[in-house]
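Consider the following assembly input.
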Amino acid sequence: MKNLLILGAGTAGTMMAHHLRKRLPRGEWRITAVDRSEDHYYQPGFLFLPFGMIDESAIVKKTRDLLPRDVDFVAAPVERIDPAARQVHLAGREPIAYDLLIVATGSHIAPEETEGMTGPGWRRDVFDFYTFEGARALRDRLAAWQGGKLVVHVTEMPIKCPVAPLEFSFLADTFFQNRGLRDRVEITYVTPLSGAFTKPKASKALGHLLADKGIALEADFAIERVDADRRVIVSYDEREIPYDLLVTTPLNMGSEAIAASGMGDDLNFIPTHRHTLQSRDYPDIFVIGDATNVPASKAGSVAHFEAETLTDNILLHIAGRPLKEEFDGHSNCFIESGGGKALLIDFSYDIEPHEGGFPFGWGPLRLLRESRLNHWGKLAFRWVYWHLLLKARPLPGISRNKRVPKDLRPAA
Amino acid sequence: MQKTIAGATIDVNEEGFLTDPSQWNEAVAAALAAEESVGPLTEAHWKVLHHLRAKHAAGEEVTIRQLGKSGVVTTKDLYALFPNGPLKKAARIAGVPKPVGCI
């Protein structure tokens, strides 16, 4: 019996367990998934939780219950991968040997990497919404907050769900309007990039949104420290932005186990072939989701598209055949724009967010344009996530490779 | 679109970034630096520019934090060398794409 080991049973790891349990012969391959947590969070829900738009109970299920029954689940933190010995060391348990390894250990926030961020202000007037605890604490703070300067901040790219901080700003605008507090709240969006939108197509279609909502923009802001006593964030070029409530997206990093294994870059992301998802250094290790260093968004939709390519490549690798260089960076996501509306974007490594219908190119959802239907699509997506996406069931009309828009196709 | 600069013809996008890094040379860099009000280019500038080109060639993305930890330049010095949006300016002068988000 051979062992396929999956590290991480989040979005990517759970999808791979379902894909491969359907495709690998049960008599030949045992599949084991390891995760430090027995709870699986629907992370898109963390955007809605601070505004009381979703219940806590709707965004958490048991990790074990989401995996196929005939996949073994081990709840333990991974300490270290030993690629030479083909085994993985776990905290407080015997090491597990593998024949093939899939690393899906994700990314997490590292607020301690920014001076002053986790100081006395942490979860008092400095919050994140990328963890369940952070989103819940922020909900309680927002419910009692009477207004002032709200600063929504991104520390550094890459971050998980890269549009979420912008969506947070839009939803905050609506939230304070509904509470009759909007004229007492100044909202500022702070980004290390050159603008809220950095691609010309998106900038042209969406650039008006911030101004329309009265949200100020501070771009090219590389944070040096949080001064929790004076309640300002300070950049390396000595700009200061005062806040009463700072909602920050701290630096994102890969798992400490990757650092302990000497397998990551300086953010603990694993060098990974951008089209095959094989580790650059170890042929029997594959990497998926936020754990890779590929220049795609760190998002569940990306993991979904990657999972289709990776499943084929695992089977090709077992058969000793060349891998498909297929994954194209395809990503799509709903963007909440406030006021009960949302946008939908769809792009890849090489193709910018495009306009048109979705799915199939003519479907009812509109790309790069605000609509109420897109918002309902985003809300309905929670059901899709639990019941279709994680279980690796097909999503009609949404394929692994980005559909090349008509005006970018070579002339016939 | 095409642009003639320092005696060379280069292809640039609508924001003035080279679309083909192989069209870059040091004379082009010096002329782009002048457009950005950076320079004259010193050894410290060149170290940053060559680092950005090497990272781009390796398919790796560069951030201000990574640059600051790379040993090539401190973050404070980076701002002194390329004032106001240093990574974007340095990328344009180095002939590599602008750092972008997903939209």
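Residues 337-402 of chain A form one domain. Ask yourself how this observation constrains the way the partners meet.
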